[in-house]
Amino acid sequence: MPNAAIVSAGTTPGGFLLVLAIMLPVGGLLLSFLLGGRHAERVAIVVMPFGVAVAAAIAAGVWRSRNVLQYVVGGWHPPLGVALRADGLSAAMIVTAALLVPGIGLFARAQFATPPGAEARAPLVFWTLLLAVWAALNAVFLGADLFNLFVALELLTFAAVPLVCLDGRAETLAAALRYLLFALLGSVLYLLGTVLLYGAYGTLDIALLSSRVRAEPLAWVALSLMTAGLLAKAALYPLHLWLPPAHAGAPAPASALLSGLVVKAPFFLVVRLWFDVMPGLADRAAAQLLGALAAAAILFGSVLALRQARLKLLIAYSTVAQIGYLFLMFPLSGKSQVGHPWGNSAWTGGVLQAVSHAFAKAAMFMAAGLVYEALGHDRIAGLAGIGRALPITIFAFGLGGLSLMGLPPSGGFVAKAMLLTAAVAEGQWWWALVVLVGGLLAGGYVFLVLARALADPSEPLTLLTPIARTRQMLVLALALFAVLLGFVPLRPSELLMIGRPHPVVLGFK
Amino acid sequence: MSAATLFGLCGAALAGLGLYGVIVHPHPLRKILAFNLIGGGVFVILGIVARRGAAAGFTSDPIPQALVITGIVVAFAATALAVALVLRLLHETGWVTLRPDLAIGARPDDPHC
């Protein structure tokens, strides 16, 4: 949204929806504390349909007006005040969150049910933090002020970290602490960059900043600090060390939330910084470095996933690899993308990868959670026969895997095909090679699980608890979303371009 | 050397020392302190940035002051959360370090993952 004219436009029609998107979950959160733990689940379930309606209204508003929605908080215009803004990209991410959060919430009802009579801590914490994560995500997707975005990122971290250690075991406490330490380093680096930008250009508003920023060492230092900080939060290789224990140790619904949505927020901000704040200042070598880290993430993450003995750790390492694909958009957004019918196929591919991975990975973590509940363990070697006992769950896992591998028809296929197209157009064949090898490795670890799950057990399998069909269908629904994204590749990219000047490219120096 | 340059250098030194501490020290409590040191450095730099308002005719720019207060609140909340986690870890295990055998799935008999 680098169009500085939007700043003086003030609050647009429908701008109040942006406030509602943040305040609705916050209101539910406060109400939960007010009413006490016994009502937290009910409040969260009641808030969800309203949140979905607000997200749909925002997307419809952006689509109908073909322009950015803006709300100027308190009537104070930037640079003194703070604005909330929704462009096509924000709308897409908000709708993704609004579909996934209720899906995860409905799935978690069995696991975090409020016990009759007494108040229990784990359900209270889970349901309030679920709403807190939702509010923080919406604040990140709608923020137009760099410092406001820092606060939103911190809220997201504070809501996400306790989700990791809900069971209170020493292993998950250590994982949560490690996650928090990485996240804190990331946010303080981001803050330092923000302060430097304010000192040099006197504004924190993204649209104003984009018109004022100049190609000079200070801007480069600020951009590097902020990008490095966000990479620590997004767990791009080699800052991924915190992710596998945290995402594998969390309860399955929390893992789905963390892997599907929470790591996308810092990625979203890197996209904002590079494409909206300073598209003209991007350095080719810096973009190639991001690409190299992405390639290392894809290759190392996939190989490590292949070597895991536990299902949830395998899925967590695959998240490390799939995050790599997101960052391939940076080296590939060069001049060849000017005049491209999709705006910029690398950019669109990267965003589509973020959305389709969110659905696919949430479905896979939830499937792993059901397998764990049924078997009492999640050792991959002991999965034989589970394919016959929980066919819908394993089918959903496979559909999610389809998207990770990038096989048609799936959102992952379209995303990776767009990245491949861009790599060819840019004449940078090495990134195409990485995409293809990453896909093969993903095929390896998905088939490793499926082959074990579909094998005949040596002795008859007895499930610890029966798994409700509705929960299995919910997982399947999320996995189907990831597949369905493969059928609508062109319409959403039109939505993504709203509020964004053509062409969406980085003017490499 | 003007006061602004001196304060700027102090902020940079604090941030640098903190960054060194976060990366080098394995102990979580030291990392938390080092994080606060970086935060202190950033807030000093924000204080210097507030002086740019003086050039525009104000006695000082009010925005960085608002940012510093918010930043301190956020850093305080972050520190409290981190210390609470360290205390719970101490309560559960008797240590306050991130030992490698606390890794998820490191114990072969661990049914959880």
Give a written overview of the molecule.
The complex is a heterodimer of chains A (509) and B (113). Chain A has 509 residues and is an all-alpha fold. Chain A has a domain at 282-509. Helix content of chain A is 71%, strand content 2%. Chain A is built from 22 helices and two strands. Chain A has helices at residues 5-8, 16-35, 40-65, 88-108, 121-142, 146-164, 170-201, 206-212, 217-234, 243-249, 252-262, 264-277, 284-306, 311-327, 329-332, 345-375, 386-389, 391-405, 411-425, 429-454, 469-484, 490-496; strands at residues 69-72, 83-86. Chain A has a two-stranded antiparallel ribbon. The two termini of chain A are 21 Å apart. Chain B contains four helices and no strands. Chain B has helices at 3-24, 28-49, 52-55, 62-93.
Structural class of chain A: mainly alpha
Instruction: Tell me the number of strands of chain A.
Output: 2
User: Which word captures the global form of chain B?
Assistant: elongated
Q: Biggest interface between protein chains, with counts per chain?
A: A-B, 50 and 44 residues
Average pLDDT taken over every residue of chain A: 90
Q: Oligomer, anyone?
A: heterodimer
CATH domain class name of chain B: Mainly Alpha
- Following the backbone from N to C, one meets helices and strands of chain A in this order, namely HHHEEHHHHHHHHHHHHHHHHHHH
Spatial ordering of strands, largest sheet of chain A: 1-2
Poorly predicted parts of chain B:
none
State the CATH topology of chain B: Helix Hairpins
Write the layout of secondary structure elements.
The complex is a heterodimer of chains A (about 500) and B (about 110).
Chain A: H1 5-8, H2 16-35, H3 40-65, E1 69-72, E2 83-86, H4 88-108, H5 121-142, H6 146-164, H7 170-201, H8 206-212, H9 217-234, H10 243-249, H11 252-262, H12 264-277, H13 284-306, H14 311-327, H15 329-332, H16 345-375, H17 386-389, H18 391-405, H19 411-425, H20 429-454, H21 469-484, H22 490-496
Chain B: H1 3-24, H2 28-49, H3 52-55, H4 62-93
Helix pairs in contact in B: 1-2, 2-4
